[in-house]
Structure formats: C-alpha cells, structure tokens
Design a protein that fits this description.
The complex is a heterodimer of chains A (187) and B (418).
Chain A lengths: L1 H13 L11 H9 L2 E5 L5 H15 L6 E5 L2 H9 L5 E4 L1 H9 L12 E7 L2 E6 L4 H13 L21 H8 L12
Helix pairs in contact in A: 1-6, 6-7
Chain B lengths: L1 H18 L16 E3 L12 E2 L10 E3 L4 E6 L27 E7 L7 E11 L2 E6 L14 E7 L3 E3 L8 E2 L3 E6 L4 H16 L15 H4 L19 E2 L11 E5 L5 E9 L13 E2 L1 E10 L10 E3 L3 H4 L5 E6 L18 H5 L7 H20 L3 H11 L1 E6 L7 E7 L5
Parallel strand pairs in B: 1-4, 3-5
Antiparallel strand pairs in B: 2-5, 4-16, 5-14, 6-13, 6-16, 7-8, 8-9, 9-10, 11-12, 11-14, 13-17, 14-15, 18-20, 19-20
Helix pairs in contact in B: 6-7
The chains are: A alpha/beta (187), B alpha+beta (418).
C-alpha cells in the first residue's frame, strides 16, 4: 500500500523532470523538462530503435514521463549534452559508458562524467546523470523492468552487475528497499 | 618589312598555341584583384581555425583583405549541425544550441580603423544543396502554440527549394546573410554585457556568456582567456550579427560601424529564403559560399549607431506577384498574458482583452490567422503552415499611430504553391 502511494507520487513527480543546465534558450529547457528524453546515437544504429521502444514503453506505462527518443549525430554529442546538464538519460554501450565516466577517449573533452545505470537493456546501458532524482530513477527502472517484454528483447537488469553502478533509485527498486533521501532539489 | 614579319610571326605563334589546345580568347584568367577565400575545414566549427561562435575583439583574424578585393566566405549552417535529408524530428532534441552560430572569419580589412564605416556589398551566394527549417520546441514566435519538434528538409538549387515534408510548395531562392557583422570593441563588450545582464536579472531573455561549446576555445572556451566576456551570437547588436534581414539581398550594401582596427568582418548563418519574421525560429538554413566586396568610409562611424543598408531595385525582385494577406491588432483573450510580456509582471495585462500600442501582439494575431488560412484553404497541417510562414510569409507593419490598435499584415505569396 505504501509502495503504491509512492509510485503514484513518482508518476506525478515525473511530470516535473528537471534538467537544469547550460542550454542557451530558456524555453528550450522547458521542452527538455517536459519530456523524459532518451538519448541515442545515430552512429550506433541499433541504439535508435531500442531507444524508440524504451520511450514507447515509458510513454505507455509511465505517461507522466512524456518520454521521447532523440538521436544525437555521434557519441561525443551525447557526452556534450549529458555533461553540460542539457539532457539526463542516454542509451550507451557499456564500453562508451565506462569511457565517459572515466573521461577517456573519445570523451576526454567532456569527462569524467558521473553516470549511474538505470537498467541494462540488450547489450546497452540506460544511464543517467548521478543527480537524476531517485524517485524518477525508481519509476523509470521499475517501468522498464516490468514491461521488458514490450521491448521485444528482455531487459537484463540484475543478471550481472552493470559496468556502471546502479543509480540509488534503481537500486532501491531492484532490492526492494526505501529510496534514499534526495540531497538537493534540482532547479 | 619588319612590321609585316612581326605580324606573320604572331599569327604563326597563335596557330601553334591554338593547335596545342590553348584558348587565348577566354577571359577566365584575366584578373583584377585576387580573391581572398576563407575556406572551411573539418566537420564542425571546433575543427576549423577559420570558424568561431562567440564575439570578442581578441579573436584573431582568419585572413586579411584589401578594400575592393573580393572575399569569399565558406559558411556553415546556423546550428553547426549534422542534419541531412534523412533527419527527422527525433534528431532535434539532441541539437546542442551552445554551438550556435558558427561564423566564418574574421577578415581583417586593411586600412580600416575604429571609427570608420565598413561598407559590405553582397556579390553572390552559392547555396549548398541541402537546407532545413525547424520547429524547435520552446523556441520561435509561437512557441506556446507549437510545442513539438518538426523538420522540413529542403532540396535546393539556385532557382527554388522543395521539401517532401511540405508538398506542393516551391520557395524561390532569395538568399542572404542571416548573420554578418564586425567584431565589437572592448567598450562595446562592456556596454552590452551590462545591459543584457540587467535584462537577464529582470527575467528577460538574454543569453549571457557561455564557455561550453564556445569557439575559439583558447579565447572563449572553458579555459579561454576571455571566457566570461565573449558575447553570444544570437542577438543582433550594434556590430550587426544575427540580423536576419532578407532585404540585404545580392547587390545591396550593408554599412557597419567599425569598432576594432581591421573591423573583423564575419559572415555565417546564410538563409536560402525567409519570410519577414522568421517566425518558427528558422528560415531555410544553409551553408553557402558568400562573396562580398568591402569599402572603407573613413571616419563615418559616428554617423551610424547601428548597421544601415542601401541598394537599388533589389527589393522589387523579392516581392510576390500574387498574395493573400491577413491583418492583426493587439487584442487577446481576457485572462491571458502574452508570452512576450510575462517577464514584466504586469498585473494589468492579464485582465485586459485589448493591449495598447502592442506591435508584437498584432503580429501574432496576423500570423495565427494566416496559419489558419493555410490549414483551412490549402490543407496543410498547422506545423507545415507554420514552417511555410517562417520561410515565405512577410509580417509587415501597417501603422503605428491609430491607438490603441497598431496593425500588422501577414502576407502569403501565392506564387510558392505549385
């Protein structure tokens, strides 16, 4: 019962996904706040259809997320958008995610970037900035885990530890523990 | 005898040369002044030493040119993007607007000094074969009405632009430099930062220096020598820049006040075509090769505080031969605060259904009506109609005296419909 109430709150909270940052157009931020944008990579062709399925599942089962896929022209753009807080969530190969966290090539101009895993999906990691709100991380992870079949291929979270540590919100979902307190409200 | 012999020798030499495949009658190799070409290199501005996307007098010249010498600027699209014919709306949220606008140059004009006027005559624009028009969520004149992304990919030649996303429309080539200007000096930087900072503080839309993505990185980037004072390229200012004035067509001359020695002339953000208003936030955005010629008007800088421009019959050529127009006055629904006025926190505005002397609201209403017209009469979606308006509809002031209702017309050229 408590969990249901929390999930309801999480769904409502997802409406207010906040992506502060350095985007020059304040209005542009509004769109990026209104929608949970799943960043994919045009130069990595499988990531885009997978991202579309992820966004479709979230839009259907976590409608407050207003999830949409978006496609960066190359992996460096993902690094730029995530590191400058313009966007929060991306689908990356484990090797790219590890490189971005460590600030290794080809991301040395952007990293190191603090990322956390939300869920592992079909050879990819759905990662987010480490300041992504825990309640949002919980809701996203839960939705994708419960509706993994609709991604056509099974989600693989929990099968083995992901290359990037789980986000505390995602960890709380998988372990059935309470959410950690948010340390700071994002603006 | 000697003379006759010389002629015979000359004729023989000509025959020999012609038989060797040389064509002396051709004028291609006959030159006046050499042309200065500022080429682009690399995929993006950050890869290109001739490209920058912030303004500061410390930015070093990419080339030097004499007055009267043709200068060719190889320019990039406004977003320094990777968009192409396969791009879709899904690509738009991943655009990095910190990269706006890549400019080519600056060109140091020899003999020009602070206090002069630099006259820049547009000689030619050679467009790329691809262009795009976007609806970027949260951006544009009707951003509250069009919250979703949209892209029209345009196939271009020097005659017209067509797009599979906007069927039945062919937009004629009326190219111009969306951004053209000179570098600001230190005093201008100080003044501009102060006034825009005050506006930002008051809640207005003013974009303060942003080192992320800034070029040249050694001047404006996160570790740059002037990272906190490099101006963004979005607003037009006294030094020109992103003016987006389509009347500055080939053959017209732009007059720019010169603020630094050599002026630091730059060009970028070329528009293949645009309606007066550029209402969706983008025109038909292209890369291009732009040819200009400059002239220095010594000591004339004090006579202009902003760019001026002059020309001949160029404006006639871009007027439609047939059109349909709507008009707007500054009325609204009671209870609404127009998005352009929200930062003023005026309690009076919300309850009113008629604002006084408000040109922006008049333009908005004329535009909304012309979009409705295209939806109802031409069968386009609202997004398609908004894009057509951005690239072809002219918002024109009717009058600024008949208080409280200024009038604005939205003029749709019917020639574009095929």
């Amino acid at each position: 019962m408590r969990r249901r109430r929390f999930l309801h709150a999480a769904l409502i909270g997802a409406l207010g996904l906040v992506s502060s940052g350095h985007t020059p157009y304040r209005q542009w931020m509004v769109y990026r706040q209104r929608h949970l944008l799943i960043l994919t990579d045009r130069s990595d062709p499988p990531s885009y259809p997978l991202g579309k399925r992820v966004a479709a599942v979230l839009a259907a089962h976590l409608p407050a997320s207003k999830a949409r896929v978006t496609r960066a022209p190359h992996t460096e753009r993902i690094a730029s958008l995530i590191s400058s807080k313009q966007l929060d969530v991306a689908l990356l190969s484990p090797s790219d995610a590890v490189a971005l966290v460590a600030g290794l090539p080809p991301f040395e101009a952007y990293g190191p970037v603090a990322l956390r895993t939300l869920i592992a999906l079909d050879g990819y990691l759905l990662v987010c900035r480490d300041d992504f709100p825990a309640r949002h991380a919980y809701a996203v992870t839960r939705t994708l885990d419960l509706h993994g079949a609709e991604l056509l291929r099974a989600a693989t979270a929990g099968a083995e530890p992901p290359a990037i540590p789980l986000h505390p919100g995602a960890l709380a979902y998988f372990e059935g523990t309470s959410l950690p307190a948010e340390t700071e409200e994002r603006h | 005898m000697i003379r006759t012999g010389s002629i015979v020798c000359g004729v023989l030499a000509l025959v020999v040369l012609l038989s060797a495949g040389m064509v002396l009658g051709d004028t291609t190799d006959v030159k006046t002044l050499s042309t200065v070409v500022i080429e682009k290199s690399g995929a993006h501005c950050q890869d290109d030493p001739n490209c920058f996307n912030r303004y500061h007098p410390a930015i070093k010249p990419a080339a030097r040119a004499k007055p009267g010498q043709q200068i060719v600027f190889a320019t990039r699209d406004a977003l320094d993007s990777d968009l192409n014919f396969e791009s879709t709306a899904d690509d738009l949220a991943a655009l990095d607007l910190n990269l706006v606008h890549p400019m080519t140059g600056p060109a140091y004009i020899e003999g020009a000094e602070r206090g002069d006027v630099l006259a820049v005559t547009l000689v030619d624009i050679e467009p790329d074969q691809y262009g795009y028009t976007l609806i970027v969520p949260g951006f544009g004149f009707l951003r509250d009405k069009f919250p979703d992304p949209f892209i029209a990919n345009w196939r271009l030649n020097r005659l017209e632009a067509t797009s599979p996303q906007i069927p039945g429309v062919a937009v004629p080539f009326n190219g111009f430099m969306g951004s053209v200007g000179v570098l600001p000096g230190e005093p201008e930087i100080e003044t501009i930062l102060a006034r825009e900072g005050e506006l930002a503080e008051a809640g207005g839309i003013a974009l303060m220096p942003q080192p992320t993505g800034a070029q040249p990185a050694d001047v404006c980037g996160p570790e740059g020598t002037h990272k906190d004072t490099c101006l963004r390229t979005i607003p037009p200012r006294e030094n020109g820049g992103n003016m987006d004035i389509k009347q500055i067509q080939v053959g017209t001359t732009l007059l720019l006040p010169c603020f630094v020695d050599g002026c630091g002339l730059f060009v970028g953000d070329v528009h293949y075509a645009q309606g007066d208003g550029e209402v969706s936030g983008t025109a038909i955005e292209i890369g291009a090769r732009v040819t200009v010629v400059t002239e220095i008007r010594k000591g004339m800088g004090a006579s202009i505080s902003m760019p001026h421009y002059e020309g001949g019959a160029q404006l006639k050529a871009i007027e439609p031969s047939s059109f349909y127009a709507t008009t707007g006055i500054p009325i609204k629904a009671a209870g609404e605060v127009p998005i352009y006025e929200t930062y003023l926190d005026s309690q009076k505005i919300a309850s009113l259904s008629n604002l006084s002397e408000n040109l922006t609201l008049a333009a908005r209403n004329a535009l909304l009506d012309i979009i409705d017209y295209m939806v109802e009469q031409k069968g386009y979606t609202a997004q398609q109609a908004y894009v057509i308006a951005s690239v072809a509809v002219d918002l024109r002031i009717g009058q600024l005296v008949d208080v409280p209702n200024y009038t604005v017309s939205a003029i749709l050229p019917l020639d574009i419909f095929k």
